[in-house]
Write a structure and sequence with these properties.
By secondary structure, the protein is α/β, with parallel strands linked by helices. 38% of the residues lie in helices and 14% in strands. Bound molecules: 3-methyl-2-oxobutanoic acid and sodium ion. Catalyzes the reversible reaction in which hydroxymethyl group from 5,10-methylenetetrahydrofolate is transferred onto alpha-ketoisovalerate to form ketopantoate.
Length: 272
């Protein structure tokens, strides 16, 4: 039986080998991704990717738990990290602990992730000293969509020190890894060199300790929007469209179902 990775196993990879992460939201995809990844993130991006929400702000703790449970049923070796959704941890360290404990208890995941730097320092320390492993997330923090004014690059020019201090604060507070989203590559390298836990980049260049992408993005499931930091490794959106179109055409032309997909009225002795 394979042993599922724990947060310290991820920390141990820093400086040794690049850490491979993808988001996963469902059991069948987690089964596939688990075989190739060190860490599977049940991201609150699930709200946008699978539920059609305009931002991650409408994601509930119940949604995160349902998707976390689905992923945990088939993830056998990768560490599973579940995002804490907007509104579930910002009020106080106590609120964060209560909801993190619920997520870990109901999903069996190994860690939670939350957004924020210096202002989350006390919360991260409160959680990590009480048995909750925390992955931090700084730079572009999508739950701050409204106050940041959209999804622009963070940490450019004079803003670099803010993002640097955020990352260092979360590492000092006990985070076992720090997600760096949409920041200049140079800044990501500075952070990676400065902290002793892994940085996991998304739109943060090649010098992070690991990389993460949204799995539907690498699949090419979306046709409408392309982020610069996404590399598409497939065009499944086009494939899916072709499959649906062909099915629709065959139903309309009565080509489907054929005899091989249909049942006769008498019981036959069959080898299958
Ligand atoms: O929700 C998410 O998918 C994330 C990653 C993209 C880092 O937070
Ligand atoms: Na997220």
């Amino acid at each position: 039986p394979v042993k599922q990775k724990l947060p310290p196993d991820i920390v141990a990879l820093k400086g040794k080998q690049p850490i491979v992460c993808l988001t996963a939201y469902t059991a069948p995809i987690a089964r596939l991704a688990d075989q190739h990844c060190d860490l599977l993130l049940v991201g609150d991006s699930v709200g946008m990717v699978l539920h059609g929400l305009p931002t991650t702000l409408g994601v509930s703790i119940e949604m995160m738990i349902l998707h976390g449970q689905a992923v945990m049923r088939t993830a056998k070796s990768a560490l599973v990290v579940v995002d804490m959704p907007f509104g579930s941890y910002e009020e106080s360290p106590q609120q964060a602990f209560r909801n993190a404990a619920r997520i870990l208890a109901e999903t069996g995941a190994g860690a939670v992730k939350l957004e924020g730097g210096v202002h989350m320092r006390e919360t991260i320390e409160f959680l990590t000293t009480r048995g909750v492993a925390v992955m931090a997330h700084v730079g572009l923090t999508p739950q701050a969509f409204n106050t940041l004014g959209g999804y622009r690059v963070q940490g450019r020019d004079e803003d670099a020190e803010r993002v640097f201090n955020d990352a260092v604060a979360t590492a000092e507070a006990g985070a076992f890894a720090v997600t760096l989203e949409k920041i200049p590559s140079e800044l990501a390298k500075r952070i990676t060199d400065a902290i002793n836990v892994p940085t996991i980049g998304i739109g943060a260049g090649a010098d992070c300790d690991g990389q993460v992408l949204v799995i539907d993005d690498i699949f090419g499931f979306f046709v409408d929007f392309r982020a610069k930091f996404v590399k598409r490794y497939a065009e499944l959106g086009e494939d899916a469209d072709r499959a649906i179109a062909q099915y629709a055409a065959e139903v309309r032309s009565r080509q489907f179902p054929g005899p091989e997909h249909s049942f006769g009225s008498t019981t036959k002795v069959s080898k299958k």
